[in-house]
Write a structure and sequence with these properties.
15 helices, single chain
Amino acid sequence: MLLAQALLGGHAWIDWPGAYIDALAYNGQHYIIEGPLPAILLMPWIALTGSANQTVLAALLFGVGIGAAYALCERFSLSRSATIWLCVLLGAGTPLLWCAQLGDVWFIAHVSAVCFTLLALLELFGARRLWLIALFAVCAAESRFTLVLVIPVYAALAWHYGERRPLAWAGGAGVIAVTACLWVWYNLARWGVPYDIGYTAWYHQDSAGMPVGSPFQLRYLTYELQSFFVQYPDFRSQFPYVIPSVAGVALTWTSPALIYAFFTRKIGAEVAAMWIAAILTAAPNFVYYVNGFAQYGMRHALDFIPFLFVLTIFAARQGMRAWTKVLIAYSVLASSYGIWVWNVFVRTGN
């Protein structure tokens, strides 16, 4: 909301209210380092009323994203029952719902990225209008920067499907070119250089970071593997006994149903593209200096979960086993428990 107000005021720096708002101090001003797309979406609302509720936008993006996921399942002729199971997994068995019901700056970025990634995939596996795929892709990337890595995957799959029309490719390239120009302008307005230095500068200022170097380093891989696959919740002697760590809980314990993505038997261009997309978007998160912190589950996994979701669709076309439904039910219960504990105990300090 603060960034939307700033952009409407004709500048990129925000009116910083204090340290409880994450913003990078730079050249005497404070700047938001996350992708600007959620702020851009809030601009019409703020222009009319002067303020906005980020959580409402997060809820709307959540709804659109789940709608796109449902349509994706239908596009691959999945049964109604399997479609509902998988959409419940995505919506309530991953960190997505936790992020959406809070709407904080870090979390709305994830919801927005998932929403627009699913819209891009829906178009890619449907009408394949390249300008629209590009638009959804850059919206996802301007929510979570790691999603820029999958744009070549979308292009390769569109080419595989037989899209050869020069005008169509020009439309997609035009969307990306305009976005790139706007991105250069935005970086010049913030940092005085055409590229983004926000996350690196934040790493140099953050107490968890280092005064020099990149926030992406191989030495953080072990820490991230521990976070994504091992990290347990905290336990205490009084009710509610099991408390999700503020630093997160591994996907192994919160969203084990995602393992269903590994059970697709069909090997082809679509499966390969989704695995490549998942790996590309996962890679930066596995060498980043923090795992997301102040979270339930592993919210950074939402960068690659949409591609795992498509893989679960491919697996479900061969029929859903009982164990899959059990894992989905568990994932939903784990997510619901985390949301309850976070709002009742963690946020209130009890």
